[in-house]
Amino acid sequence: MADSEVLHAEHRLEYPYSRSTGPIIGAFLTALRDGRFVGATGTDGKVIVPPTEYDPLTGDDVGELVEVGPGGVVESWAWVSHPLRKHPLRSPFAWALIRLDGADTALLHVVDAPGPDALATGARVTARFRADDERIGSMADIEAFVLEGGAA
Amino acid sequence: MADETTEQGPVTTLATPISLDFEFTPGIAQSKFLRGLERGEFLGQRCATCGKVYVPSRGTCPTDGVPTTEDVLLGNSGTVTTFCVVNVPFAGQSIEIPYICGQILLDGANLSFMGLLQEIPVDQVRMGLRVEAVWVDEGDLTPSLASVKYFRPNGEPDADYETYKEYL
């Protein structure tokens, strides 16, 4: 290579963060590792999923944890035609806000659907968890949500 | 499943590594510097207006705002203007502590850069220490500062403070 040619190099900047989950998020992630969902009950009786540490209305501690899902309803969605390298799925998918059965708030996750025509606001979906030995207590323990009963 | 939870205990931490992949392009002036390292040389550039020699050069003089076009080959020796003894371990550390980071002002240069100092006990490092670069074996030279293994004392008497006081 001639001296006049400009160099370039691949670099990676990386930090190995780990976060403490606290008792509430920790319980949510523990449930994911078990292949199920839990939400927290707010002071107004509404069920918050994913749970917050504190009641969003009053700032008080949230109440008991209740089981929700694994089915739910798509409240809003955006289709990703060309997934990027860091996206959870290699094939086109939807980011969606999903209100799980028994919950009053929506969870952001991925819907693995055949195409944008197969998806609609109000569509019924259910979680597809990873295999038992692959779950570690992470949002990625849910591989994706899929349409109930196949394509809508 | 419930039994499994009991065995593993509740989730208390979450690994959230963050990483950014990017392509670095050093530009014309820094590419020359890096090509010099590949040959085992320190190559700087002189400002035609103020006469200062920058190594590594960014291609312009920060004082005069003019392109630095004259390449200057610098020697292998320099002076430690200031230094820091590193005693604190951190993630990803590749050098055994304690070690010394020195600001090295190469002879003929008007800009110092950071270098690792070795072959001297940490309590004997001082401002004005005369040092020389130790390069990797010829076959291992690359266009990277990794071509310089470290700096070590070159045996000359300490530099006079007046010669480097502008570069602290």
Question: Which properties best describe this structure?
Answer:
heterodimer; A: 152 residues; mainly beta; three-stranded antiparallel sheet; 1 helix; 10 strands; 8% helix; globular; B: 168 residues; alpha+beta; five-stranded antiparallel sheet; 3 helices; 14% helix; disordered N terminus
Continuous helix count of chain B? 3
Q: What is Rg of chain B?
A: 21 Å
* Helical proportion of chain A, percent range: under 10%
Structural class of chain A: mainly beta
The general outline of chain A is globular
Mean of pLDDT of chain B = 92
Strands of the widest sheet of chain A, in order across it, are: 8-7-6-9-10
**What radius of gyration of chain A results from the CA coordinates?**
19 Å
Distance between the termini of chain A: 57 Å
Distance between the termini of chain B: 63 Å
* Quaternary state of the chains: heterodimer
Tally of alpha and pi helices of chain A:
1
Number of strands of chain A: 10
What class would the helix/strand composition of chain B place it in? alpha+beta
> Looking across the biggest beta sheet of chain B, what order are the strands in?
8-7-6-9-10
Shape category of chain B? globular
Low-confidence stretches of chain B: 1-6
Portion in strands of chain B = 25-35%
